[in-house]
Amino acid sequence: MLTKEELPFCPVATTVDLIGNKWKLLIMRELLKGTKRFNEIHRLVDGISQKVLTENLRKMENDGIVKREVFPEVPPRVEYSLTELGDSLRPIINSMSDWGTDYIKNNLMEQK
Amino acid sequence: MLTKEELPFCPVATTVDLIGNKWKLLIMRELLKGTKRFNEIHRLVDGISQKVLTENLRKMENDGIVKREVFPEVPPRVEYSLTELGDSLRPIINSMSDWGTDYIKNNLMEQK
DNA sequence: CTGTATCCCAGTGGATACTG
DNA sequence: CAGTATCCACTGGGATACAG
Fold first, then answer.
1. Edge-to-edge, what's the strand order for the sheet holding A36-37?
2. Which nucleotide is nearest, taking the CA of residue A76 and each C1'?
3. According to the UniProt entry, where is the signal peptide (chains A, B) (predicted)?
4. How far is the alpha carbon of A74 from chain B, nearest alpha carbon, in Å?
5. Which domains, ranges and CATH numbers included, belong to chain A?
6. Checking DSSP bridges between strand B66-71 and strand A77-82, what pairing results, if any?
7. Which residues of A touch B31 (CB under 8 A)?
8. pTM (2 d.p.)
């Protein structure tokens, strides 16, 4: 997206282009808690395949919101963390978390 | 999603399930500005097809975040607006808008 | 105007096997 | 461990035609 300049820089569309999909948002949720290894994220983001995880991490790296650090060890270790730009997205994930918490409380726990 | 109870109510995942895709977020952006007719949204959400718009509006209606009101006129008029639940998502879109604004300012307007 | 109904293609993403 | 490489199924989404 963002290919056509007919989008005169809508802020919401810009953000959506960077993290407006399920997997990126869930990966963000984990990385906001701190640096993580590949397999950790794979385990924590429920249902994601190795392929899709790799693809999304690469995109996020290219967009400058994720930093990838390779440690030349055996077995290999690769750590992913948020860049400063990535961390600046924290308020968005937080607001989603806040809303979700309320929603669950009010709508999914009708056991009053 | 949310089919497997292996998701022990993660707030972010819950929110992502409801509005974690491009089109819904952009539709939200418009409806947060006020009630709109079908064709208005179609015009304002750049690139969306009639079919996809209808599908997403139906899903959002079923999820209780959008209200659909039909006026028995000729030609027909249908107005879409946010429910109270839908409007409660405002902070999320706002934080995305805020972040996008900063991002554009800092990264896409390097004309200093 | 506001849809529904088809057809169909491209891309997303799952499963599996293999590698450094 | 952290990928890459395939193969493939499914579906999101475009185009088009038609309807109330």
1. A36-37, A77-82, A66-71
2. D1
3. none
4. 33
5. 11-109 (1.10.10.10)
6. unpaired
7. none
8. 0.91
